[in-house]
Design a protein that fits this description.
- The chain is of the alpha+beta class.
- It is elongated and about 65 Å long.
- Strand 6 and strand 7 form a beta hairpin.
- It starts with a strand and ends in a 35-residue tail after the last helix.
- The chain contains six helices and ten strands.
């Protein structure tokens, strides 16, 4: 749509024909958004951000038995299963199967480590790939907080869903040469050290 002219109570719309426009691309983005909206890990994103994320995902098709990624490889993408299923293989043994809406590959991006498992298509499968930059922009900060919670004895026993819920409400603060808490003050906040160190005085 080039222009919209409002004349009194009437609206005249001028439409320009786009010969190279592929309506299937628009449908793919719409379907991807619906899939993303069902994922708890993305529930903190508003509709606008979901639209943007859906528009930059890269569809990848895999044949039955084809590896999406292999254990020990360097990882630069995270994948979301859009259609079909994938087997999770560790040291040659199948340990799990993932279906539509499940994701994998995030650990290598979070920890800058090699892939900790191989993923193989179980039947014809389509995945949506997120590059590292996209991952860091939309998902990385929340998932990194979830992984930090795994290292805290008090929070480690919680389910992934519960840790994810906490990650969405935590507030990050930076202290440089300041008191974080003072003995005798009311205790209303819990702190988790993610970087640096503190000294304790009584």
């Amino acid at each position: 749509i080039d222009t919209i002219e409002k004349l009194g109570e009437f609206c005249r719309v001028h439409v320009r024909y786009l010969p190279n426009f592929d309506i299937s691309q628009l449908n793919e983005v719409r379907d991807a958004k619906h899939l993303l909206a069902e994922m708890p890990i993305l529930s903190h994103l508003n509709a606008l951000k979901l639209d943007k994320l859906a528009s930059v995902l890269r569809p990848c098709d895999f044949e039955d038995g084809q590896f999406v990624m292999k254990e020990g490889e360097e990882g630069n993408e995270m994948y979301i299963i859009d259609d079909g299923a994938c087997d999770v293989i560790i040291k040659g043994t199948k340990v799990a199967q993932l279906d539509r809406g499940r994701y994998f590959g995030e650990v290598a991006l979070l920890r800058d480590a090699p892939r900790n498992a191989s993923i193989r298509a179980n039947g014809k499968t389509r995945c949506l790939a997120l590059t590292r930059n996209i991952f860091d922009q939309f998902i990385g900060p929340t998932l990194r907080t979830v992984f930090i919670f795994e290292q805290v004895p008090l929070l480690a026993p919680l389910s992934f869903e519960d840790r994810l819920s906490l990650a969405k409400v935590v507030v990050k603060k930076t202290f440089i040469g300041k008191d974080i808490i003072v003995q005798g003050d009311p205790g209303e906040t819990m702190y988790i050290i993610t970087k640096g160190e503190v000294s304790i005085k009584i």
